[in-house]
Amino acid sequence: MTSSDYTLQAVKGIKKSFDNACKNKIEGYMKQGYIQFYNTSEVSEIYTSTEGMTGVTELGELGTPPSSALEDGYSVTIKEKRFGGALIVPEKVYRRDGADSTWKVDQYLKRQRNQLLKTSVQKLITDAHLMLNEAFDSTSAYLAPDSVEVCGSHSWASGATFDNAVTPALDTDAMDDAWEYAGAYTDPSGKEDPLNWTHIVVKKGSDAHREAIRLFAKEIKPTQTNDINVYEGELTVVETPYITSTNKNYWFLYDLSKELSPLAVGIGEYPTMREPIKETNEAIRSNVTDFRKQGCLNMPGQIYGSTGTT
Question: 44-54 and 69-79 as β-strands: parallel, antiparallel, unpaired?
Fold first, then answer.
């Protein structure tokens, strides 16, 4: 077997470990729920935000119950995008470097595989968290169905409004206000629909992170999923490094007891290593590509966010 033949086979040999590791790492984030990750075979998906239901009323003795109809809201379309990187073994590495070229290629491939795995997963997760990092930005690419930022002053299609954006730093007073918001929350038709906060998401290592631990998870040992710590206390505290340092004061409350998060990432294909190719310059290339789409699929009334600036 020639050096190039061996290298081609060696690249094929790491494909399965790369593909499985990518899938397993991403599925670790899927379990957290504050961003909804789901598998999809569709390249473009259309969603209609839901608002409420009408039609229940008092009836006379012989009255006929009216037909109850689900009130549709806004239409949302998200389209798949393609992402990728590549693992390349230069000819010099597999033909000339080191007295034992087989050992050299194996070690080189392991380092390259591990780095590409980390980079591919990090790109996907970082992109997903843009929906939080841009939650207060009206120019974000990930607006709510009413074309308002995820945390802002929203209008249902029926005309009712709600505002899920505040500015206080996380403390007991801020939580009192958040619970008041939750208790007064109504659906688009004005019917009582109180929220029950289940999760709080904060920047790892921030003041908000430390305050969240004091408020909800003191002396509770976290469970680590990849690089996210999860404290199962009064609320589930999720500390993530993917809220940026610029936005380190941000904090977000979620009610995930009734519905999935409206912030969603549809994975058409996990980062996958393709068959190796011998280039004209004799390098061995194996592309890694993935297909996904993301957006805010429903009105974000179950999310309450603060910039933490006051």
Answer: antiparallel
Q: How far apart are CA 310 and CA 306, in angstroms?
A: 10
**Per-chain mean pLDDT for the chain:** 88
Amino acid at 46: I
**What residue numbers bound the domain in which 223 lies?**
3-49+76-306
Q: Please tell me whether residue 32 adopts helix, strand or coil conformation.
A: coil
Query: What pLDDT, on the 0 to 100 scale, is given for residue 58?
Result: 67
Asked if residue 107 is part of any domain, the answer here is yes
Residues 212-234 have a mean pLDDT of 75
pLDDT (average), residues 165-191: 93
Residue 64: inside a domain: no
Closest CA to 182 of 289, 254, 98: 254
Strands 236-240 and 303-306, how do they pair?
unpaired
Number of domains in the chain: 1
Which is it for the CA torsion 242, 246, 248, 253, positive or negative? negative
Q: Per residue in 30-56, pLDDT tens?
A: 888 999 999 999 999 998 877 765 656
**Looking at the domain assignment, is residue 257 inside a domain?**
yes
Amino acid at 29: Y
Sign for the CA dihedral angle at 157, 162, 165, 167 comes to positive
305 touches 262 (CB < 8 A): no
Count the Cβ atoms, other than its own, within 10 Å of residue 276.
21
Give the pLDDT confidence score for residue 187 in this predicted structure.
86
Q: What angle do CA 180, 184, 187 make, to 5 degrees?
A: 145
Say what the pLDDT of residue 90 is: 87
The residue with tokens 């939080």 is 132
Residue 65 located in a structural domain: no
The pTM score is 0.86
CATH number reported for the structural domain that contains residue 38 in this entry = 3.90.1690
Which segments within the chain are labelled E, that is strand?
36-39, 44-54, 69-79, 81-89, 153-155, 161-163, 165-166, 199-203, 223-225, 228-232, 236-240, 251-254, 263-273, 277-278, 284-296, 303-306
